[in-house]
Amino acid sequence: MSRKPNIAIDGPAGSGKSTVARELADRLNLLYVDTGAMYRAVTYFAIKSGIDVENEAELDALVKDIRFSLVRFTKSGTVVLWCNGEDVSPFLREKEVSSQVAKVAAAATVRKRLAWYQRRFARTDGVVMEGRDIGTVVLPDAEYKFFLTASLDVRLKRREKELRAAGKSWTRKELCYELTYRDEMDRKREIGPLKKAPGAVVIDCTNLTVEQVIEKMMESYGGG
Known about the structure:
The protein is built from nine helices and eight strands. By secondary structure, it is of the alpha/beta class. The protein has one domain: 3-Layer(aba) Sandwich (Rossmann fold), CATH 3.40.50.300.
């Protein structure tokens, strides 16, 4: 039996990557990998341990002690990130984590370690992996690559909805700052900056439903 393909989805925060990637992975029966959650997990452990997130040596020591695993629940199809035997998902959208994750994600040692895990996940039997440098750095040989965009207003509304569903309370001003700050940090960082991968299909999700975005992706997938 031939190996299933890898699908890379990149784009800025709030562009709809996670929702679309989860649905696409479920539809194609592929493993869903949220790389952003991995960076948030490292940030969570750094804060929990009292580590300075701008101290790369301390981050390096920390990330080497974290063991990442993906738990896929057969009945629901939900994929949950576990670190050192702990389900960290309830903590990943806390304000302190969100405000510090861009600094952690800029650390070269952290990116190198997490990219190793991400490529390892992709060697299983095909994945739908979303993030900011998947098509350019982590999986440059992915069979299918997409880059999602959306207006800032739409991204803010989507992130608000996501946070409300998780029981998190953010003001519009806080969210706007977080998204624009993260956009700037992601695009300007030296290691794995946010940008469109060569050959990636660009999809502007501003006026599209999740189903419409997935239909566009399926067109590329089916035509490939």
